[in-house]
Amino acid sequence: MRIVSIGGGPAGLYFAILMKKADSSHRITVYERNRLDDTFGFGVVFSDATQTTLADADPETFAEMAHHAYRWDDIDVHYQGKVIRSTGHGFSGLSRQTLLAILAGRARSLGVELCFEREITDHRAVQGADLVLAADGFNSAVRDALKSHVRPSLDWRPNRFVWLGTTRPFNAFTFYFKWTEHGLWRVHAYQYDGRHSTFIVECTEHTWRASGMDRASETDTVAFCESLFRDELQGHGLMANRSVWRQFATVRNERWHHDNVVLMGDAAHTAHFSIGSGTKLAMEDALALARALQGSRGIATALDEYESQQRPVVESFQRAAQISLEWFENTERYMEFHPLQFGFNLLTRSFRVTHDNLKVRDPAFVETVNTWFADEATRQSGVPVDRPAPPPMFTPFRLRDLVLNNRVVVSPMCQYSADDGMPNDWHLVHLGARAMGGAGLVFAEMTDVSPEARISPGCAGLYRPEHVGGWQRIVDFVHHHTSAKIGIQLGHAGRKGATKLAWEGMDQPLEDGAWPILAPSPLPYYAHGQVPKEMDRRDMDTVNRDFTRSAELAEEAGFDILELHFAHGYLLASFISPLTNRRTDAYGGSLENRMRFPLEILDAARAVWPAHKPLSVRISAVDWAPGGLEAEDAVAVARMLQGHGCDIVDVSAGQTVPDQRPVYGRQFQTPFSDRIRHEAGIATMAVGNISSYTDVNTILAAGRADLCVMARAHLWDPYWTRHAARELGYALPWPPPYESLNRYNPRFV
Length: 749
Known about the structure:
Elements: E1 2-6, H1 10-22, E2 27-32, E3 43-47, H2 48-57, H3 59-68, E4 70-72, E5 75-79, E6 82-86, E7 91-95, H4 96-109, E8 113-116, E9 131-134, H5 141-145, H6 147-150, E10 152-156, E11 160-166, E12 173-180, E13 183-191, E14 197-203, H7 205-210, H8 218-228, H9 230-233, E15 238-239, E16 249-253, E17 257-258, E18 261-263, H10 278-294, H11 299-329, H12 339-347, H13 355-361, H14 363-381, E19 397-399, E20 402-404, E21 408-410, H15 425-436, E22 441-448, H16 465-481, E23 485-491, H17 502-505, E24 518-519, E25 533-534, H18 537-557, E26 561-566, H19 571-576, H20 591-594, H21 596-608, E27 615-620, H22 631-643, E28 648-652, H23 670-679, E29 683-687, H24 693-701, E30 707-710, H25 712-716, H26 720-728
Parallel strand pairs: 1-2, 1-9, 2-8, 5-12, 9-18, 21-22, 21-30, 22-23, 23-26, 24-25, 26-27, 27-28, 28-29, 29-30
Antiparallel strand pairs: 3-7, 4-7, 5-6, 10-16, 11-14, 11-15, 12-13, 13-14, 17-18, 19-20
């Protein structure tokens, strides 16, 4: 096979090595526009896991890399005059020039033709090749030439950074956070050989401009940073290598190949330097493509297999990198944290490292974090926490006079099993089982404030006096037989009402028996759905009275906490979103106007709900659609809610419009909770693809939320909390009839 790599970085060189090893008859040429020793940056980083992969793929190349690498286990976080150290992380740094020399030497020894200082700007110049690699980096000329086929996108990030080197050897991966009159400076530093380290300086656009660095030359930049970090450098200087202030761009492509041309490394994708090295991804691309080619029945099939197998890995890495880079873009948000929590938050910022991972790597550090968190929980709740400190999820939390004995919440989940709103045995067993399962708080499903407010004919309600007895039976069971508290979520379906049961067609309009529906504007949810009536003042007054009556009935039924549903495109959410509120009166236009009616509902409910009991509001932080709500709007919404007596915000997202485009992933909505909690200064509940106890402990210890809300995990396992306690070695008391389970070990059955 005739193979040409346009680009002589790690992707192109490593692929050439792997293919030549697999079949020495391959004719492989690598073209690189720069000299071998002319490369941007100083050092690259590999985790122990990545190194294991590389060692298995080509032991000879890896052995040479390992010989020149500098390995460390510790991460040091310098914050507020303290050093928070965590160990057991396992990384190695390597000079980028050394890496390229190793790869080039190995490739040449195997018979690969290397052509440095030869620039190929048009892939058609190598049409005679069977396979062409576009490994020409971030500024890929090949990608640009193929843009109509691969459809690239570049997301330029706001922060500024400069990549420097230093002669100070750091014996740990080191982070500095330093305030000046211009703002906050971040440093990422790591050693890459026996005598040198990479030293990346990062700041916001505002700080960069205020400090005059927007007008600085490379020499000015080095002098400024040496002065700013004189103490940290301990007498060592900084080195420059094309060290100009840059903005990071996340590169994505809809496709990675066209005909016989395939994108690799930074030409195909980038991941922010705060989570790891782009070199890692580039070399893993090379390995994935080489494997696909060796096992395929042709190049076209191999390229499809390469992309289908490697793309999910890269996209997962990019999601983590996105969360990490946003952490560094918003570090100012966390600068009031206790040092231990700040360090834990930083270490777990990408969601790839968790409370449980850290416990394996550095149990002493996690024990210290748990003890600090337990002390804070005691202070906040007024309830002493036993020692040794439990995992964060098993600490108490107070909202007004309500004290939860742990931080796990069963999410409101519509069961579509009521008759004219009346809860029945299904609801008793559903909610009772989950309360017995150990959660600190169990929410009844979205409960509608009138017959016309229902999503479907099977939705639960609290609009007739008879409903009180049905709900009271459930509340009494929870209170008398479990340690859980129970809440109710009141809502109005709005334009998403009069639809089929979920399993008959989610959000699909009823074919028979539909009732009239209301909305702020006459916009149907689906084009084929019922057009709602645009609400007038009389309609608003009626809905207000309905919510007020239901709140009074909820108190009569004995619920511990009341939640109002301002999310998911239902009536009150549709007032908040500009996508669904097109009004031109005082209830439309600005966010303040769009919030006017939801706040009237909140005020009315708070007025009749007992002052000693907490009130929560669920919101959609973003609409996942152009022109809709964004995260900064959610912060403003939360501030308004707090000003009107809301105690905690239940932070969900989306479901406002049917053509939404969510960005899914583990804990995909948690960053919204994090931002609201710190920027609005209100307690939050995190929800959205939280399924493991280690996720819960991580979210809580890092300060991203005060409570964690789970839906499907509790449908799958009503005893989720008890099973988590068992795995974590925490003694969660059983109800007396089940007391014998304290002596039961399922592993011996």
